[in-house]
Every structure is written in C-alpha cells, then in structure tokens.
Amino acid sequence: MKTALPAILEAKLADFRKRVWVVKLTEGLLAAAFGIVFSYIVVFVLDRFMETPAWLRATLLISGASVLGLGLPLKWHRWVWRQRRLEDAARLLRRTFPRLGDQLLGIVELAHMEAGTAGRSERLVQAAMDQAAEAVKDKDFSHAVPGARHVQWGWAAAAVAALAAAALAFVPDASWNALARWATPWRDVERYTFARIDALPDRLVVPYAEPFDLKVHLSKDTRWSPAAAQARIGAQPVIVSILAQSTYPLAFPPQKDDAALSLSLGDVRKTVSVQPRTRPELTALSIRTRLPEYLKYKTEPTVEVRGGSVSVLKGAQASLEATASRDLASAQVDGEAEKVSGAKVTTPFHPVTADTEKHVMWQDRDGLKPREPLVLKINAIADEAPRLAARRETQEQVVLDSEVVGFDLDVQDDFGIQRTGLEWRSVNDDKTKGDKIAAAGEPEKKTLSAKATFCASRDGVAPQSIEIRAWAEDYLPGRKRAYSSAFLLHVLNKTDHALWLTEQFGKWLEAARESYEREQQLHATNKELRALSAAELDRPENRRKIAQQASAENANASRLGMLNQSGRSLVEQATRNDEFDAKRLESWATMLKSMQDIAAKRMPSVADLLKQGANAQSGKPGQSTASTPSKSSSSLSKSDKQGEGKSGQGKPSAPQIANGPDLPPATKGGKASDEEQKKDNMPSISDKEGSMSKAEPQPADPNAKPSPPKPSTMKLPTTQMAAAPGQQKNDKEEDKPQEQPPASQAQKKMQDAIEEQKLLLAEFARVSDELGAILASLEASTFVKRLKAASRQQMVVAKDLNTKTLSAFGLDRKPVKDAAQIAEHEKTQSETVRLIQSDLEAYFARKPDMQFKNIIGQMKDTQAVKMIAYLGDQAAINLSGSSMSGAEFWADTLDRWAEEMVAASECKSCSSCSADSLPPEIVLKVMKSLRDEMKLRDETRELENAKPALKTEEHTKKSADLASKQFGIQANTRGAFDDILQLPQGNEKFGKELKLLDAVMHVMNESAAILDKPDTGAPAIAAETEAIELLLQAKRQGKGGGGGGSNPGGGGSGAASGEAALAELGSGQDAAASLQARPVGQATGKAGRELPEEFKTGLDAYFNKLEEGGGSR
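^ thats the sequence. predicted structure below, dont judge the formating
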C-alpha cells in the first residue's frame, strides 16, 4: 500500500503543474497569433515594394499558420502531456529550487513506493513528508515556471496586432488587398498599389531588331504620382522616364532575343515578357478580275502584283487578295476594315474606271503592323491590239504560182485571240487582193502559234508581184485588224520562172568564174615564189608571202563553198519547175558536187601544203622536218608509185572517133602513168589536122619519171594539130630554164602545192566549161519556151476575138468596146516578141548557131513584131476576121520557130546517173511528191486550226480540195513507180524502192479517205507524216555503190559517184551528212602599221636564233 502525500504538499505541486500548463499554452497561443499576424504584416510590407510572388506569400502564410498548427500541439505535448504527474512537477521545480525540488521529488517517489518494502521506515517517511510540507506551505511557485515568456509573446502579438489594426484603419484598401493576397496565395489577386497604372500586357511582342516605345499611363484613381519611372530589360542599362501628362514614355533599344522587362514606378512593380518578332509581311498579293462580257471569259483571271503596281483592264471589276506571313487580326484598305480569314485578306469587287491608289494596312495577332501601309497603284489600261510576227521558211522572193509558201505566225494578245490569217494585195493594182483564215483562237488564249500557207493558183491569184502580211483579231468590237510586216513575193508562171532561174544561173556562173580567175592568180604567185632560190625562199618576207598565199587559198575555198551553196539553192528551186528537164538539172547538180570537192578538199589541201612550206625548216628535202605531209600530197605520192601499165595488151578500149589522118605520137619522157592509160580508155571525139611538114620522132627516155596524173574525163570535141617539124610538143617548156629539183623543204612543199593546184585548176576549168555548156542549153531552151508562150498567147487572142467580137462581125469599121482590151493585149505581145528577137540576136552574137541565124532571118523577113502590132490595130477597128486569121497564123509561125530551135537547145554535156541508180527523172518525181506532201501537211494543219472560225460547208469543201490534191500527189508517185518498172531489170534492181513507193501510195490513199470525210485532225496529219517519212526513205534509196560514174567523171571528184546528184537536194538532203569542225583561219590582207623590211629581217633572224638555241639545249 502506498503512502499518501500531505495535502498541502500535493496541493502545492498541483497548483504549480497547472501554472505551467497555463503559461506554456498561453505562450503557444500568443506565438501563433504573432506568427500569423506577422506573416500578414510581411506580405503587406512586401506588396508596397514589389510584386510579392505567390510562392512567397504561400510560404509566409504557411510559416505563420505553422506556429498555431504545429507549435501549440508541441507545447501541449511537452508541457501538458509530459508534465501530468506530480513527480514531473517536482522535476520542473528543481530547475528553480534545486534542493527543494530534489526533496519534493524524493518525497513524491517515497509516497508512490509500496508500504512494507524491505528497509523502509514508515515513521521516517512520514516525518520527511511533514518536514517537506512545512517547507513549502509558505512558498509561491507561480514564478518557478521554467522559461516563461508569455508576457513577451503577449507584447509581440499586441504590437503586430496594433500594426495590422493601424493599417486597416489608415489604408484599408491596401490592408484588405494584402489580407486577400496573404490569405489566398493561390488566387491571382492584383496587388494594390498607391500608384495606379493602366493594365500592361504580360507578353509584349515588339518588332525584331527595331527600337520600340512603351508608354505607361497613370490611372485616374491613382493615389500617388511618382516623378519618374524606371525599367530594365535583362541585364541591360536602366531606362528612366519622367512623368509627362500622366504618362511615362519609355524608349527601349532594339531587341533580338526574348527577355523580361522589369518596371518600377512608385510602389508599382511589373514584369513584362518582351518577345522580338519580325513584322508581318505579305507573301502574296494579287488582283482577281471580272472582265467585261465582250471578252467571253468564263473564269476570273488573277494578276500577280509586282513592284507595287498592277494593270487592270478599264471597265473590269477587281478584288484584292493578299496573304500574310502569319495569321492576321485585322486589315484595312483605305481605312475600311476588310474580311480576314487566317492569314488571307479578301476585298469585295469594285469597278476600275481610272487609275487609282489603294493603301493597305494589316495587323497580326501579336499587334505588329508594317512600318508603313502598302501603296498599291492600280493602272486602268485599255484593251490593246494583238501583236504578231510572221516568218517565212525561206527568204526566196520569186516563187512559182503553183508553189505553196509557208509562214510561221506567232500572235500574242493581252486577253484573247479570236483568229489569225493572211492577207495579200497586188503591188501593181488595187483590184487583186484577198485574205484567208489560218487559225482560230479562244477567248482565254493569249498566245497562238500557227502555220499559214499561200499558193497563188489555189487562192486565185494570177502571176504578179504581191505583198503578203499576216493579220490577227481579238474580241474587242469594232477594232481593226493588226498586221505584221509585209513580205514581197514575185509570183511567176512556169515559163517566166524558168527564164528568171536561167538568168540567175548565168550570174552564178560568172561569180564561179571569178573564183577560178582568183585561183589562177594565186597559182601564178605560187609559181613566182617557187622560182626563187632556196636561200631567197627562206627569207622571212618570202615565208610571210607563202603564209599569205595559204590564207588567200583558204579564203577562196570558203568563197567557193558559199557560192556552191547558193548554186544548190538555185538547182533546188529549178526542181520545182517542170519546165526544166531532169537531165540538165542532174548535170548541174553533178558539177556542183565536183565544185564542192574542189572547195572542201582540194583547195584546203593546197593551203595546207603552202602553210607547211611557210613553216618548213631550212634543209634539204630528205632531212626530217616538223611539218607533216598533207593527205593530198600523200595520195599523189601513192599514185606515183602505182604500177605502170602497158598498152597494146588486148584490153578493151572506149570508142575513139577521129576525123583526119593519124598524127605522129608525141613522145614523152618516162612511162605512161595509170591515169594516162585510163584516159586512153575514155571515149573521145577529135578532129585531126595534119601539117605540111613531118615531125621528127624523138626517142623516149626510159629513165624519165611518169607524168603526173590528170583527170580522165570525156571532153567536148577538140581539134588536134600535128607538131611542127624539128619541134616537140613541149617546145615552149624547153625555151624556159630547166626547173631545178627542190633544194629545201620549203621548195619541196611549194612544188607539191603547185602540182596539186595545177590539177585543181584543170578540174575547175573542166567544171566551168561543162557548166557553161549546160547554161548555153538552158538559155537556148528558154527561147523555145518563150516562143511557145508567145504562140499560146496568139491562140488566146484568136479565141477572144471569136467569142467577144462575134456580135460585131461584118459591121462597119468602128471601134468595138470588147475589142479594145484585145488590141491592147496584142500590142503587149508585139513587145514580147520584140524582146525575144533582140535577146536572140544578142545570144547569136555571143554563140553563133545556124538555127539561131535562120530563125532571126525569118523574124526579120516576116516583120513579126510589126505585123503582130498591126493585128492589134485591126482588132480595134472591128476587123475581127482578119485579126483572127492573123493571130492563128502567128501562133503557128511562132510554134514552128520554137520547134526549129529544139535542136539548138539540146544539152550535149548533160549527164545521167549510172545504171545502178535511179534516173534523175524518177528522182525528180519522188522529190516533187515529197515536197508536195510536206506542203499538204502544212495546209491540213492550217485548215484544222482555222476550223472553229469557218462554216461547216466551207471546211468540208476545203477538206475535199485537200483530198483531191492528195490524189494528185499519189498519181505523181504512181508515175514514178511505173517508170521504175519500165527500166531494164527495174523490178530486180530497185525492189526496195518499189516496195517503199507502194507503201507510200497505200498511205496516201488512207490520207485522202480521211480528208474526204472530212477530217483534218490528228489522223490525217499522222497519215501524211507517215507518207513523208516513207518518201524520204524512197528518196534516199538508189545510192548504190559501183557504176561507171557520171560524165564528166574521173579525177576522184565528187561527181564520180554513181548516184543521182539530185537526190542530195531538197528535204532530207542531210541524211548522210556528218558534222565537221570548221577551222577559222586568218583572213588575207595586212593589219596594223607595216614595218620596214630590214626591221622584219632583223626580227626574224633574232627569233630564229632563239629557236636554234632552244633546240640545242
């Protein structure tokens, strides 16, 4: 059993314990009150100087509340729960009263021990308790509470409470605002400031790398107006602004990176996020237009704006469409708000009646605008006339009336092309004129390329000089046509065209002879240089002369090449006129091939040898040189080394026709060359004339070198004279000093060049003579044609007299209205006959011929010119019967004279191709079919393009005409096919050609059937194209190898091949062509200041020494 404590002692300890509980709990409550109020006071104070962040306000609130929420329970646990027993109270007293506390602690512990414990004395325990009770009965333990600070916490709590109360009393708005911000830190409660400003954005987008301003405005309800405001971006310098009219203008430098802007204005603290961004730009700007109804547009064209201005058709309606670089918030045009959709701005349509300006401004969603509004100039323009250009395939102004002339038309218009075509008019009168549609356009087709054709016979135009120009129309009502530059065409009939071409051939031949004479001059100069000694030839000035000779040779070759091209063009034009027979044209084309060989190979070879001579080193010919022999010289050396032939070994020889006694053979030094033996095998015609004296035979030198080769050609009949007695055939050469063998490399090259040039001149002379003979036959044939044409005109006069003056037959002599035109026509024919007679007399003076002399005599005897003019006078006074019979008489007479001249017009030099090639007549037919088919394709394409602008009946008729033309071309091709079959073994030799021509005729049948439907579209053009390709193959066939070559041949010239030379003219002529680089040499002549010869000699010697020294090293 436990011992009870004295009452006084237990009461004293219980009172002390209660006192501790009250004091410590009071301390906790006061501390909690202090913490809570103090945290509020801190927020209030901080809000006066800064924008207290939410996290700090939350921290202060939690800290203040933690004193109450955590400190008070801790206080209760420590001072109440842990001090609930009396011994705990005794221990606390021991802190203030150590001895008394220990005594009381011992008494309390003894009292709690069980009675009867060993060694325990109850009397002593009781006595101790009484002694302790007596000791504490007068003690006051109220101040013995350990660490009592309830008074201090009371004062602290009262102080902060007083501060809070004062704030609430004096600045209630700020106090309540701070209380709200402190009590609810999670809410975005705007901080109360005494200096009130208008709201600032949290995110400020400014122009990139541009200075910007920020104006801070004081609110009307502000209680404080600070004198200045400060702002700073990042670590940049502080910007200060003075108050001006309730505004603080802040100017900031350019910014490139995102940063925070801190604003300090009185108790206002703001942080704004500054974000530099580029200004919004327009990535696209266009004008959508609604064009006037006359243009027949079904769409709304869009015109892109370039350079701040745009042209719009006057009378159209326009809408502006703009696209920005990012989404827009608004846009204005001339101050009026426009519809915005994302980044696109669209305005309503407005009519455009005059030039105007539009001011466009836009703003993106960040508030950025362009620096200045866009000023768009809208130019109201009128509908312009079409612009067109016309080009011809060739520049030939003289054309046949049956020839189809092609034009390439390129038309451009600002809005739409309605149609285009050709228009023609006569140069001599205003009656002959016409036009045609070449292609139809469309309302929205701004460019048009078309092929237009003109054919005088097809379009009903008589032979005359006409002007042709292209025209185009657009859709503007009442506008006149737009025209291209005019082309002048001289349309001739077949006869006049043949006369004109013959005249051109004559002029061309004169130009060719000038080239021949120039070559002769070069040859003479080369011989003079060769006559110099080796030492003189090595002089620098002579070497320069050789180089100049080489350049002049190249220049003459180039001139001859260009002349040859113009000759080919003339022959090609002649192939279109069937007045020219194929044999003459083949002969002319063959001569052109020979001339081309001279210009392209032989003249450059001579120039090459001369250049090697100019650059040759000094020394004997046997020594090595840096120069390389030319192909021609090497070929000559090879021909010199060929085996020598022997005559009289039974080899078959060509027919040799001679008139007169055999002449003694002229002896030559050396053996005959192979070329001379070939020459003996060529057919020849000679008229031999003997001499009263006998020529002494000269023994042949067996050791002499063979004579140089010469071209083996069949020439015109020649007259051979016997050599005079005691004189050899080459006695003139013996009078000259004996030519010494070359003593230097330069002399050797000069010798080779002279020899090759001599052969070149011989070939050139032969070609020139042959061309002269062909031209003579052509000129003679023109007289036949002219007389035939005059004869036909007389028959026309007789017919007109019979039909137009028949009603006045037998009446009195008086002028008849219908006969006046016939009389004028007859006088014109009289002048034509006079010109024929005059030309015939001039031609006879140049080339005497008995047929010409006979006809000239008959024309003079019959007074043809005077009598034909007299017929016109008789017709004018109504002597129609006499005039009719006279016209028929002169028609017969002129025709008879033409027949008599046929023999004089026969070409004795006209050649033909070999037996293994197609005859030129057939080749000419194939060429005509090819040319006509190509023109037909152009006409078909032209008609298809013009189809929308033509009536259905007109298109059908023209398509049927094209089908008829296709049948005509097929008939011509059939003629060539039949002619090949008529050739000896034609089916065997020309099987490929026959197969191709048969395929051509089959395709032409298909093409004609398509055109007859009518259909001028892609199927017809495809069939015509197939026929053209097949004809090109047929035209290139027959170029077989072998054959005897054409006459004149030999000499390895280009004319020696067995194919028809005509096959290389016209379309497809480049089938076997090869591209070669054309060297551009130095032109002849001298440029710059000419130095004295002694200066040149010294310079040449100086450089020669340098070269010799370099070579020795």
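Residues 146 and 1012 are 134 Å apart (CA to CA).
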